[in-house]
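Can't paste images in this forum, so I'm doing it all in text. The chain is below; anyone willing to post the predicted structure tokens underneath?
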Amino acid sequence: MTVAALVLTAAVLMHVAWNLLARASHPDSRFLWWAVLGYLVVLGPWSLYELATQAHWSLHLAGLLVTSALSNGVYFIVLGAAYRRAPVALVYPIARSSPLLIALWSSLLFGEVIPGMGWIGILVSVGGLLVMASSAWHGERRFVLLLAVTAAFATSVYSLSNKFAVSSLPTYGAQLGLVSFDLIASFTALSIEQRLRFGRWRPPVRPPILRWLPAGLCIGNAYGLVIYAMQYLSAAYAVAFTNAGIVLAGLLSMFAFGERERWGTRLSAIVLTTCGLVILGFSV
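Text version of the structure:
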């Protein structure tokens, strides 16, 4: 558990870092497109070579990689569609409620036994995320809710695929290769969507390279470290613990950036999510 805790802490910090780097980007820059491109250019070739040469290949592993890549592509597309219609504060917490779905699928379909305290921790932390989402709820948002839930479903699919695949990926390089395989599919989906919507393959605005390149490395390695932690934890636990990044980002937004809209509800959500993660930690 000590190794998993250290790895997930690093993943959380990287996740917060790339979100902070994206925070000040121009809306037309499609920051995520640039960040994923940066990761693929720098670490893609090496990690894919590691995946090809170090993985214990089988048809089962190949199927898991394809499932993970397709669900990643769906995740990016529906999340982007939701962001165009509603604020991140509404969409992202719902999308990150996936640990509950992961726990359900792994228990009902694959026979994983999650202790009672683990269920309580997951439910409390997800409840905190939903309270956080409610702080940004304005008007009619049913279609946005459908998109965000679809993103959570896609996250549960690729997370379980990664959990089953990690036993065949003996090195961190091979695990990053899985990330690269997924992000190639995601980058392709983002590019096609951009071409269809704007008639061009590349975004019209390029953010500073000192923002999007480090952000891309953080995105890829944060994802890779979660997969690495799945060697020691169930997928539901690993993904749930990374939601500490939402807690940290929420505190920064209120106290460092002065975003105080509905601060009472948001602070209550942060406390509730944190309590859930603490309970989850004691259940391990």
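The two ends are 8 Å apart (CA to CA). The mean pLDDT is 91.
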